Amino acid sequence: MSDAYAAAGVDIDRSDAAVGAIVGALGSIEVPSRQVPLPGHYASVLKVSDTLGIAFATDGVGSKLVVAEQTSRLDTVGIDCVAMNVNDVICVGAEPIALVDYLAVEEPDPDRLAQIARGIAVGAQSAGCEVPGGELAVLPELIKGHPSPHGFDLCASVIGTVQLDAIVTGKAVSPGDAIVGVPSSGLHSNGYTLARHALRELDYDDTPAELGGQTVADVLLEPTLIYVRAVLELLRSDNVDVHGLAHITGGGLDNLKRLRDDVEYRMEDPLDVPPVFGLVQRLGDVSDDEMRRVFNMGMGFAAVVPAEQADAAAAILGAHHPGTRRVGRVAETG
Prior knowledge:
Elements: H1 3-8, H2 12-26, E1 44-47, E2 52-60, H3 64-71, H4 77-89, E3 95-105, H5 110-127, E4 130-138, E5 152-163, E6 178-183, H6 192-198, H7 216-220, H8 228-235, E7 244-247, E8 263-267, H9 275-284, H10 288-294, E9 299-305, H11 310-320, E10 325-332
Parallel strand pairs: 3-4
Antiparallel strand pairs: 1-2, 2-5, 3-5, 6-9, 6-10, 7-9, 8-10
Helix pairs in contact: 4-5, 6-9, 8-11
């Protein structure tokens, strides 16, 4: 079990078991299926014609919203909401085309809602998708803020299109392939229950030495990077065969196993770890293993490509996200 995370209020093992229970219950639905089999992948794909698939994903921002509420800095969490969805959809090779958001609030404050919406707009523009609609729910009995009455929850669903013969399933991942890592901007939108617990003795305006002059609020509210344009360019390249794409979120580097779980993913030259992770680890007394299991540790996205094409892939992705490089390789298990 993940000790520090459990002490902060999240038991990863129990959460995994809960997801399994949900999947088991939903598996009892007996209707004709259009689903393309992609068990455990980042997005689902439905066949809508003989050649075209629709990919979709849904996700939220999580307890990063607590930081936004407590600091009254609401203009970036919409970017996170978009990012957590479009970065999943792109993993199956789909181009995100539209997003709808669901915003549940304790109190409908127009100014605060406008700030949140501006972040969604920035994120959607960065991802190249539109926002044709959404839903606002005022739920004072369910949503309680930090502080009240400013509570809210934000999530979204994204759809994208992909040619059925171009789906990146991960099945092509093979021993000897290279892992190309794309830097994260920090914590992104995962592990915030643990991060906030570890940093609970600090004020948001504090500037610990590790952060190089940034405040705690600055690093905690740094938006999740959106990798869509970079990955689309990689997918459209004639010089790179993309065997797998992984969005590194909750679960850390174990997310690579969602591509193919009967091989090993060996990190031989990891990307630099942003200072916020060291601060969380030091103040929260978190083990190295748990840090790697909970956080992205500086790598927000990864592409698995043939070894001889790693430099070309890194150049394409790095043009959008400097610091991208080959970080490891795929190996046989054992």
